[in-house]
Amino acid sequence: MKARRLIDGAALGPETLKAEGEAFDQAWAQIAGNFGDNPTQVENARLRLAEAMLSVATEDSKDVAALKDGALQAMAMDYRSDIRPTARYSDRDPTALHRIS
């Protein structure tokens, strides 16, 4: 899988890579059910998690729980930044925009 190759290929020491891999697996186990069974969506989510994992890692990162929590938080923030209010035309007045909540 591309996501694990991304982590395994990072320019980090062996202990940090081991912790990153464990943290990734634990984080994915925690959130995998949120992404259904569409292989493309699953792979995209795994790649986003891997990128989030690498964004919180440093050479000294060996705390699996902290890496997992940091990556999940970074991924959640990334998803929140992608959410935009949706507007649609009113059924009665097609020139009037209404927010969907």
Topology:
Layout: H1 2-8, H2 14-31, H3 39-56, H4 64-82, E1 87-89, E2 97-99
Antiparallel strand pairs: 1-2
Tell me briefly what this model is.
The chain is mostly helical. 61% of the residues lie in helices and 6% in strands.
Walkthrough of the structure:
- The chain is built from 4 helices and 2 strands; from the N terminus they run ααααββ.
- It is mainly α and 101 residues long.
- It has one domain (2-99).
- The chain has a two-stranded antiparallel ribbon with strand order 1-2.
- Helix 2 packs across helix 3 (39-56) and helix 3 crosses helix 4 (64-82).
- It starts with a helix and ends with a strand.
- 22% of the residues are buried.
- Mean pLDDT is 81; it is low at 84-90 and 96-101.
List keywords for this structure.
101 residues; mainly alpha; two-stranded antiparallel sheet; 4 helices; disordered C terminus
Order of helices and strands: HHHHEE
Instruction: Report strand order across the widest sheet.
Output: 1-2
Quaternary arrangement of the chains shown? single chain
Q: Cα-atom Rg, whole angstroms?
A: 18 Å
Number of domains: 1
Shape: globular
Number of helices: 4
Stretches with pLDDT under 50, minimum 5 residues:
84-90, 96-101
> What is the average per-residue confidence, as pLDDT, rounded to a whole number?
81
Residues in helices, as a percent range: 55-70%
Give the helix/strand class: mainly alpha
- How much strand? 5-15%
The counted number of beta strands is 2
Q: How does the major sheet shape up?
A: 2 strands, antiparallel
